[in-house]
Write a structure and sequence with these properties.
Elements: H1 20-43, H2 54-59, H3 66-87, H4 99-109, H5 112-124, E1 130-134, E2 140-144, E3 159-162, H6 169-172, H7 176-183, H8 189-199
Antiparallel strand pairs: 1-2, 1-3
Helix pairs in contact: 1-3, 4-5
The structure holds manganese (II) ion.
Manganese (II) ion (MN) binds next to helix 1.
C-alpha cells in the first residue's frame, strides 16, 4: 500500500507563485487520487511483494498483467512524479543553484538564464498534459501524461515541473507561460543540488 506523502511546507506558503487553493487541491485531491487508484490497481496483482518499491514497479510495467498496466502507468507515474515535484519546491528558494550544479548548467547552456529559457520553452512545448524534467546529465526532457524517464529505463530526474492544467489553471487560467515563469521563485535548489550529487555519480 502506497501512501500520500506529507508536504514539508504549508499549502499557502508557495504564494504568490502557487495559491493555497491549487496546492490543496493538487495534493489532497489529485495526488491522493493517484495513490488510491494505484493501490486499487495493485490489489488485483498476484505475487507482488509487500515491500516492492514504486521505482521497481514503474521500471517494469511490462512485467504487470495487461489488465492493470495502464492504470499503474498513469497512477504510479502520478504518485512518483508528484512525490518528486513537492520536494522540488520550497517557500525559501535559494533563487539559483550553486556549486557543481551551477557550473554544470553554465557549461552546458552558456548561462543559468539560458538554461531557464530553454526549460521554459520546452515546458511550453508540451502538448496537452505532461511534465518537463531536468536529468542528471543536465539535459531537459519532457513526457506526456504521467509518464516519466524512469519508465523508459532512464535515470531518475533531478527535478520535474508539472505542466498539467490542474497545476496552474485556477491561478493563471490558460497562460502556462506565467505559471512556468513564477515557478522559478519557489524552486528548492538545495534539494536539487543534493540529487545532482547523488544521481550524477
Ligand atoms: Mn499534477
Amino acid at each position: 500500500m502506497f501512501t500520500l506523502p506529507e508536504l514539508q511546507y504549508d499549502y499557502e506558503s508557495l504564494q504568490p507563485s502557487i495559491s493555497r487553493d491549487i496546492m490543496e487541491l493538487h495534493h489532497s485531491k489529485h495526488h491522493a487520487g493517484y495513490v488510491s487508484k494505484l493501490n486499487g490497481a495493485l490489489e488485483g496483482v498476484d505475487g507482488l511483494s509487500a515491500e516492492i518499491t514504486l521505482d521497481t514497479i514503474i521500471k517494469d510495467l511490462d512485467g504487470l498483467p495487461e489488465g492493470v498496466r495502464t492504470a499503474v502507468r498513469n497512477n504510479g507515474g502520478g504518485h512518483f512524479n508528484h512525490s518528486l515535484f513537492w520536494q522540488c519546491m520550497t517557500p525559501n528558494s535559494q533563487g539559483q543553484p550553486t556549486g557543481e550544479l551551477m557550473k554544470g548548467l553554465e557549461d552546458k547552456y552558456g548561462s543559468f538564464q539560458n538554461f531557464v529559457e530553454k526549460f521554459n520553452n520546452d515546458s511550453l512545448g508540451v502538448f496537452g498534459s505532461g511534465w518537463a524534467w531536468l536529468m542528471p546529465d543536465l539535459s531537459i526532457v519532457t513526457s506526456p501524461n504521467q509518464d516519466n524517464p524512469v519508465m523508459f529505463g532512464k535515470s531518475e530526474p533531478l527535478m520535474g515541473l508539472d505542466v498539467w492544467e490542474h497545476a496552474y489553471y485556477l491561478d493563471y487560467k490558460n497562460v502556462r507561460a506565467d505559471y512556468v515563469k513564477a515557478w522559478w521563485d519557489v524552486v528548492n535548489w538545495q534539494f536539487i543540488e543534493q540529487r545532482f550529487e547523488t544521481l550524477s555519480q
